[in-house]
Amino acid sequence: MNANSDNILEIDRIEVLYDNVIAALHDVSLNVPRGKIVALLGGNGAGKSTTLKAISTMLAAERGVVTKGSITYDGIPVRGQNPAEMVGLGMVQVLEGRRCFGHLTVEENIIAGAFSRKLSKADIRDELDKIYGYFRRLRERRKSQAGFTSGGEQQMVAVARAMMAKPKMLLLDEPSMGLAPQLVAEIFNIVKELNQKEGVSILLAEQNTNIALRNADYGYIIETGHVMLHGTAKSLLSDEKVKDLYLGISKEGRKNFRDVLRKESAVHPDLHHE
To answer: Half-sphere exposure of 34 toward its Cβ, with a 13 Å CA cutoff?
Structure first.
């Protein structure tokens, strides 16, 4: 992969271990095309967050390490980089749980995202105006203490702060977690708008299959550290079998991907089993 590749991110058969013992990812491969949204779907413990942290080089903080395979971002091998260097290269991760600075105002939180860009006050104001064009709700709450805003507003603050770093690629970890459906829809509308108007490539980890695939171009489904299925978002969303597979529910009781795929001789032709 080089900087002119159609893919901004390429993951090739990586394995991740925690504490040199616990295998969290097994032979995982995925691509994110430039300017596209890719959804990484799965339940708790499936390996979604581990995959994102492997990409952004945050694994070391949790005693994790990529032991096999390779990750290439914008033509550059990720191995040997640190999180700050990845931000400098244009990749920003929005961690699960929103992670706002509760004692700062909404606007102060957003401005913190520009720390690496060394902008003048005038430039910061221009960037804020642009950000508020997408996050209109935050313009109204900009002087409020972030810790007293709603969960949905804090999630918006986290994404807005990430956008202040002028990323080429965003990694979003569970942006819908714990939020009311109306706020989830609003956040995903903003994410889609950022992708279309700013050209930001996005990899989002989600449990909410429907909302993720309705806004993505491509999807991967991961279970127990293995990619089980992948395909275009349209093909994944339109096939009723996929919903059953993701939910792990059938008339015969609760199942996982491996159980169901053993019985399925053929799935939608646009879908790919691993």
So the answer is: 13
Residues in the chain: 274
| First CA to last CA distance, the chain | 22
Which residues make Cβ contacts (< 8 Å) with residue 237, sequence separation at least 6? 210, 213, 214
Q: How far is CA 188 from the centre of its chain?
A: 12
Structure tokens at 46: 């499936």
| 250 — pLDDT class (breaks 50, 70, 90) | very low
Closest by CA to 43, choosing from 174, 179, 229, is 174
pLDDT above 70: residue 212: yes
Ramachandran region, residue 98 (left: φ > 0; alpha: ψ -120 to 50; beta: rest):
left
Tens-place pLDDT, residues 85-131: 999 999 999 998 767 898 999 999 999 999 888 888 999 999 999 99
d(CA 201, CA 106): 25
Fold of the CATH domain 7-273: Rossmann fold (3.40.50)
What is the pLDDT, as a whole number, of residue 115? 86
Kindly compute the dihedral angle of the four CA atoms of residues 101, 19, 54, 162, in this order, to the nearest 10 degrees: 0
Please answer whether residues 100 and 154 qualify as being in contact, where contact means their C-beta atoms are separated by less than 8 angstroms. yes
Q: Tell me the domain boundaries of the chain.
A: 7-273
